[in-house]
Amino acid sequence: MDIIRVISLLLDYPELQLQQASSDLLAIVRQADISAKQQLQLTEFINERSQSDIMDWQSEYDGLFERGRSLSLLLFEHLHGESRDRGQAMVDLMQQYQQAGLDIGVRELPDYIPLYLEFLATQGEENARLGLAEVAHILSVLQCRLEQRNSNYQALFAALLELSGVQVELEPLREQLKAEKPDHTNEALDKVWEEEMVTFGPGAENDGCATSSKPSETQRRDQYVPMQWTDATKPANTNIPSGV
């Protein structure tokens, strides 16, 4: 699905080339099978970002997704946190990519949301929908947290949630999240830095799972097998409030 690939690009670290491709991105949004509301929000997001200063955009991106864990773009951060289950989940997802023929090359953890979306975009419409549905509870939490931060990045997650076909009651979730303590402040970050960072693979933090967001030509759409994530009503990590 081209619209999922577009959202994957928009959720990745912003580069000048992305701004220059705004007309192509907008054309795909116009043709996407999504509601008029989501089309409008995505169009506004692309227009605003393509006209902004790239360094300002990158700085905002870092402030949102690189400070604290609540807006982490790593799926398993929200499911497993620092538990040992996270390592096995990484291995399982990596195997799924490899079995589908995903070409490995770029250094990135396999649960990085833009990478996961790039993978789903190659799996056919129904499989892509199933893949989004499996993580709908995470997408909804990220959408609501971005709303709280007054960020239009929330539009990207709202579109993904719509594409998943899962109906999530957002209002109770918004009320729950109001009680969360911010984790992106300097004080909160200092506490995190005192903890030992979890690493994956033999090479520690700089040698994590090396993956690529570009599928090979041999990747087949009928090879997708849904991952066993977690019950959406029983999140495994406290980063996601109960009842989501």
Query: How many domains, as an integer?
Result: 1
For the sheet with most strands, the description reads: none
Total strand segments: 0
Question: Can you tell me the residue ranges where pLDDT is under 50 for at least 5 consecutive residues?
Answer: 188-193, 202-244
Looking at the structure, what is the overall shape? globular
Q: How large is the share of residues in beta strands?
A: under 5%
Task: State the helical fraction.
Answer: 40-55%
Number of helices: 13
Radius of gyration: 17 Å
SSE class: mainly alpha
Calculate the terminal CA-CA distance, rounded to whole Å: 27 Å
Series of secondary-structure elements, N-terminal to C-terminal: HHHHHHHHHHHHH
Mean pLDDT: 78
